[in-house]
Amino acid sequence: MSKTKTITMTGRKPVQIETEKWPVIARADWYDGQIECQANRTKAIRVRAHEDGRRIIYGVETSQYPGERANDCGFLTDSRAVAEVGEIDRHTIEYIQRVAAILRDEGLGEDCIANLPAEVLS
Questions:
Q1: What is this structure's pTM?
Q2: What averages of pLDDT result for each successive group of 10 residues across the chain (122 residues)?
Q3: Which terminus has fewer CB within 10 Å in the chain: N or C?
Q4: Can you spell out the DSSP letters for the chain?
Q5: Domain that holds residue 32
Q6: Is residue 56 part of a domain?
Q7: What was the pLDDT predicted at 122?
Q8: Whose CA is closest to 74, among 52, 43, 96?
Q9: Which of 38, 28, 19, 37 is nearest to 96 (CA)?
């Protein structure tokens, strides 16, 4: 049985995916304190890619403090807009930066961009 995940999106209803068909290709994490499981606040950005070229770029922010809300956001690349490899990367980076801005952590966005698969130059 395939494992599924529901991802909160920005400006549209959530999406549900089979995680095997949408592997994580880049990630960045932040938490306060020295041990993640004891953190009061956490932030994470993930990039998942489908074999057809679509990508889901999403972020999650949690807080253990009373009165503070979780902050989830996400974007799905349009398969028509990602026909070329360069366009896929350009859209992915733009969405990572948008997610980082929503999470108020541009450094986390830069960490995620740095974890994308490297561009091979010849």
A1: 0.90
A2: 93 97 97 91 97 94 92 87 67 96 97 94 86
A3: C
A4: ---EEEE--SSS--EEEETTTS-EEEEEEEESSS-GGG-SEEEEEEEEE-TTS-EEEEEEEEE-STTPPPEEEEEE--GGGGSSHHHHHHHHHHHHHHHHHHTT-HHHHHHHHHTSPPPP--
A5: 8-12+15-48+61-114
A6: no
A7: 83
A8: 96
A9: 28
